[in-house]
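Listing S7. Sequence submitted for prediction.
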Amino acid sequence: MMKRVDVASALIFDSSRQHILMVLNRKNDSVYWSLPGGAVERGETLEQAAVREAKEESGLDIAISGLHSVREVFFTEAGHHALLFTFYAEATGGRLEILDPDGDIVEVKWMDVREANGHMPYFPAPISADDRDFAGYFFQGDH
């Protein structure tokens, strides 16, 4: 039986809306770029988790402004049934720095939208500054 895991992440554009905040993750032997985010902790809402993870992984304070998408994935090898909630968010304060207590984040930076999309093929359509309240749901099968 698979364990259910909820994951919340934040899609944050810079003021020019030409760059997306991305974090470089290190998990075991793999290194990959993603939006800041992580597992929802007990007693925490999805929104609270996205805000906390953004602060830990990027140093920025954020305000959630809408839901981008919900994706569902079976990570068969890990035994996880994951629901991944991606929220639109705006930076409201803080400064770029890694505060991650788990030590999984190697780098944080503003990345050109086109380059960022290249690191996120799991979204069914490229992220665009014109997207607002897309709120799509996608079952992404077994991985």
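Caption to Listing S7: primary sequence and predicted structure tokens for the chain studied. The domain at 3-142 is CATH 3.90.79.10 (Nucleoside Triphosphate Pyrophosphohydrolase). The mean pLDDT is 91.
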